[in-house]
Specification:
With 575 residues, the protein is an alpha/beta fold. The chain has 19 helices and 12 strands. The protein has 3 domains: 66 residues; 266 residues, 3-Layer(aba) Sandwich (Aspartate Aminotransferase, domain 2); 117 residues, Alpha-Beta Complex (Aspartate Aminotransferase, domain 1). The termini are far apart.
């Protein structure tokens, strides 16, 4: 039995202090009101507890003072300078307007513009012990002055990595989109939680609109029929896919869990994001029930190995549950054969999920959406606008063609939040279908971007970064010492080695690859300590460390692509 089924339905006449009953003769008028005096008497500690009495008296005075100063919460709170260091109400009183404006000005000047200027450093690097000495991390009994807080703000910007810098090409996110930035600032100011229509009416309808359009772009039937949710990262979105797949196959698992059930098996690429395995472990499947499917020479899942492993599971008496395909793998940027995977899912009755967290942005482009051909057949999709579309973090979505599965799978009908006798249509209370309670309005920054640029603007953004990726790839091919890992990358990930002059005449043996393996880490160290750029590297199975450039910042130009190659070459000259 679900936990919520153990509790009676909450009606508006009930009180948590005294249940309303029409049969006992009681009514609400007979319930003694808990006045301020009664509450004070009931709460006052005994004289013997002098410590508690003093603490209580101090707290009462503080709250009384705050209430008097509040003056109907009209932003006219007055406090002495001494008061500011000991107690400040969490409210934007008029006296803080100057401080807020000054801080915002500092952020705009130092983080938004100076921090993203090509002439600035991407990072001012310090080792942990040194950084602890340079920055005041200490928390104290007394609050700091506003001048000190502004200094800390500036120092926070100074010692942080400028991920909006054009030369930050280190991860699958970068850039500072001005519209997304303003959108995120607004939602932080409004501080909504998107779970009921009554507390987030605008954002509830906005989510409905944006998710519907994203499903339409994916190609779900009937113009994008289905459901979806904004969630905190692609990893959680992939977890929603596992949860929904489990519920569709075994609805009783919502109540009984996985106990005494046939083992459920998840299949995914050996190059898939680690979140598929992590969320499977988190949800009780166990890592052994996540089968890694071999990839081919360009990083795509081998369908022959997928079908072979599905057959092995059936022979063992296990239940193939789902396939998590990838549209844009993290390292090589490979797109799995979604149409072929769909056929196997249909044949063996498996849920088909597509992790398009990275590559989903290509759907916005008529020129590049063919990379995700077959995604319209999926049961669910992860798509992160904060990646290829460059919205501010975090902005992640889970989309499904099944209209009711999220609510059926996750609802518990908590009566303190999702009352069914509200005065409005409670179908707009979306919170019961997701696993969080409080949830940020991540939709607004993306909606605001989309309104500003239009679908055509987002398409132009995607095509610009693909064009820069193609230019960079061509430059790598023609430049001495640079070698591609994949001759023809599919996405805007370009993986390559740089072979310094001292290694070029060596025989390609174990010693050569051991020495090549050390090049990327040393170059990375040099660029970070110099602050000139940030690009990541990694090994892959038997391959030695190689660089991975990832592009999603559409401010980059061909001259920047040449700069990246020049800087790597310069830093590696003496290796």
């Amino acid at each position: 039995m679900l936990a919520s089924e153990n509790f009676p339905t909450h009606h508006f006449k009930e009180s948590i202090f005294k249940p309303y009953s029409t049969t006992s003769g009681d009514d609400l008028a007979s319930v003694t009101p808990l006045t301020a005096t009664a509450a004070l008497v009931a709460s006052t500690p005994s004289p013997a507890d002098s410590t508690s009495a003093v603490a209580f008296e101090q707290a009462s005075k503080m709250l009384a003072t705050a209430a008097n100063n509040n003056n109907n919460n009209n932003n006219n709170i007055t406090s002495t300078k001494d008061d500011l260091s000991s107690f400040v109400a969490s409210h934007p009183a008029a006296e803080f307007e100057g401080f807020i404006r000054a801080c915002v000005d500092e952020i705009i000047k130092l983080a938004v513009f100076q921090g993203t200027n090509r002439s600035s450093k991407v990072v001012e690097w310090h080792e942990p012990a040194e950084l602890r000495q340079l920055f005041d991390f200490q928390l104290r009994e007394q609050g700091e002055s506003q001048d000190k807080l502004r200094e800390l703000l500036r120092e926070t910007i100074r010692f942080s990595v400028k991920t909006g810098h054009p030369y930050f090409i280190n991860q699958l996110y970068s850039g500072v989109d001005p519209y997304a930035l303003v959108g995120q600032w607004l939602t932080d100011a409004l501080n909504p939680s998107v779970y009921t229509y009554e507390v987030a009416p605008l954002f509830t309808l906005m989510e409905e609109q944006v998710l519907a359009e994203m499903r339409r772009i994916v190609g779900f039937p009937n113009g994008g029929q289905g459901d979806g949710i904004f969630c905190p990262g692609g990893s959680i979105a992939n977890g929603y896919a596992i949860s929904c797949a489990r519920y569709r196959h075994s609805p009783e698992s919502k109540k009984n869990g996985l106990f005494n059930a046939k083992p459920l098996i998840i299949f995914t690429s050996e190059d898939a994001h680690y979140s598929v395995e992590k969320l499977a472990m988190f949800m009780g499947f166990g890592s052994e029930h996540v089968r890694k499917i071999a990839t081919n020479e360009v990083g795509k899942m081998r369908l022959s190995d997928l079908e072979e492993q599905v057959k092995q599971c059936l022979e063992n008496g296990w239940q193939p549950l789902m396939v998590s395909a990838t549209a844009g793998t993290t390292v090589l940027g490979a797109f799995d054969d979604l149409a072929g995977i769909s056929e196997l899912c249909k044949k063996y009755n498996m849920w088909m999920h597509v992790d398009a967290a990275w590559g989903g942005g290509a759907l916005m482009s008529k020129k590049y959406r063919h990379l995700l051909s077959g995604i319209e057949r999926a049961d669910s999709v992860t798509w992160n606008p904060h990646k290829l579309l460059a919205a501010s973090q975090q902005c992640s979505t889970f989309l499904t063609r099944h209209q009711q599965v999220l609510a059926q799978c996750h609802s518990t009908n908590a009566t303190y939040l999702f009352q069914k006798d509200k005065f409005y249509d409670t179908s707009f209370d979306t919170g019961d279908k997701h696993i969080q309670c409080g949830r940020r309005a991540d939709v607004f920054k993306f909606w605001f971007m989309w309104k500003a640029k239009g679908t055509q603007g987002l398409e132009a953004h995607v095509e610009k970064v693909f064009r820069m990726a193609e230019f960079f790839t061509a430059k790598v091919r023609e430049r001495p010492g640079f070698e591609l890992v994949l001759e023809s990358p599919e996405c805007t990930n370009i993986s390559f080695w740089y072979v310094p002059p001292g290694l070029r005449e060596m025989e390609r043996n174990r010693e050569f690859y051991d020495r090549l393996h050390k090049v990327a880490p040393k170059v990375k160290e040099g660029m970070i300590k110099k602050g000139s750029m940030m690009i990541t590297y990694q090994p892959l199975r038997q391959l030695p460390n190689f660089f991975r450039l990832v592009l999603q910042n559409s401010c980059l130009e061909e001259s920047d692509m040449v700069y990246f190659l020049d800087e790597i070459e310069s830093l590696a000259q003496n290796l």
